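Exam revision sheet. Question 4 asks you to relate a sequence to its structure. Input first:
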Amino acid sequence: MLLVKNMTNKMDSQPITILGIGNTLFSDEGVAIHLLPILEKALRDYENIEIIEGSTDGMRLLGPVEDAENLIIIDAINAGEPGGTIIKLEGDKIPAYFGIKMSIHQLGFQEVLMAAKMRERYPKRIVMLGMQPTSLELGVELTEINREQLGNLASLVVGQINDWRNLS
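Answer key, structure tokens:
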């Protein structure tokens, strides 16, 4: 399900879209979905912030990606680091590709990014922030290690927004 919340209040500037993706049924794979309520509180005084809970919506996220001028993607990121490590990828370091799939149902977020690039509707600025999962086992809660890092990840997201707005 795609949920959209516009945050408008005091700090106004260019629009920024925050897209949280992940699956809350597989422990730390749902880190972004667990982070979004924290961000809603932290960003309540900011204008022009759109927060989208993309869950596992796949190609249905193409529209929001293409409509974003400045996009922050939040997800679990497997970078081979210790669980709970916070990871930042920018621009071309964010994987965007079409891989060999057995069916259309296997399309992932990398294909969404590639489609936006191919259609020349890629965001002007894009960054992916996330966390190395400790566990991807069946379970609706984050592991303790990853849960303890949510505040640090939220601070990184807010810092990224402030950095972009200071560049404008």
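Marking note for examiners. The first strand starts at residue 3 and ends at 7.
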